[in-house]
Amino acid sequence: MKAVGNIKAITQQRSSKLANVEIHISSVQYVTSKKDGRYFQDYAYEEELETPLVITGDCLARADKNKQPEGDFEFNVYDKVDGEYVLNENKRLEVTVVYDFEEDVTIISALDYTVTLPPAEFEQFRKEREKEKGFKQTKTSRKRF
What we know:
- The protein is an alpha+beta fold and 145 residues long.
- The protein is 16% helix and 54% strand.
- A hairpin with a 4-residue loop joins strand 6 and strand 7.
- It has one domain.
- Strands 1, 2, 3, 4, 5, 6 and 7 form a seven-stranded mixed beta sheet that branches.
- The protein starts with a strand and ends with a helix.
């Protein structure tokens, strides 16, 4: 995970001027909620990405949260569909940054990119990913030296 550009320049209004700000994401957390008897249970699946996912600043806007602790940012994520930016309610990005005064650089200390899926889609997605993992593992274990 890394950032290019000034994350603090992103405001509550999405702006195309911030396309030069990039956030490189190394893992994605997929979540869902299913009713288990009386109560809803949350389920999550975290995927480590081989190549980082890059989200640019023009696809982000700060969430409307008052009194966030300094260095904590929560963003709404927009998808670009046919040249138009559309807010995706199912995606959320949370970033915590610290400033290193000696190096004069801002460092990402925590990053959480969450995608919410419906229960049926979540199960299908999880099964496909686990099948791919199993296939990759058996493929590498068959190699002879």
